[in-house]
């Protein structure tokens, strides 16, 4: 069978599902958000001073990064789960979140004395960050990998990695409400590592469970 014929067959299979793929993705994301919220509130919950913290730019900037990542990863995984769908634009949008973090880090380096750079980078919750972002995100990751099987991705490893990025962005959004380390230096380092763990797990899951 030619590649073009395979893609058409997969696309026809994806369209024949009981629920169209687009609404199914929104439903899956809603369920994943509920699962992440349950894990978050049953374990660490928001920081006690969250209301005053919401009036600070550093605290709110964390959500700008995590929500940008979540939004762009959601667009990418929807494109990758549909055979023949264009994903180039969605891939380009994935550059937004890293670019925002880089800008925030540069501004932080100008605003903070060099002697404080190391302390702000290490923070006080490094291990909690790298533990709880994957913990909060593992349930959503399983849901997103299941949705990839509901669709018909032609690049399962890449689609799985996108699922990990989406789960990581969602989990990091919840974790950011608990995290006491608001410096962009901390976010750029430890949030990225924690999200990368979920991305690697997603790529592995795509290879093992989303193959055709």
From TrEMBL:
Membrane-spanning ranges: 24-43, 63-80, 92-112, 124-145, 157-177, 189-210
Keyword tags: Membrane, Transmembrane, Transmembrane helix
Family annotation (InterPro entries): NrsF (IPR009495)
Protein name as annotated: DUF1109 family protein
Source organism of the structure: Mesorhizobium tamadayense
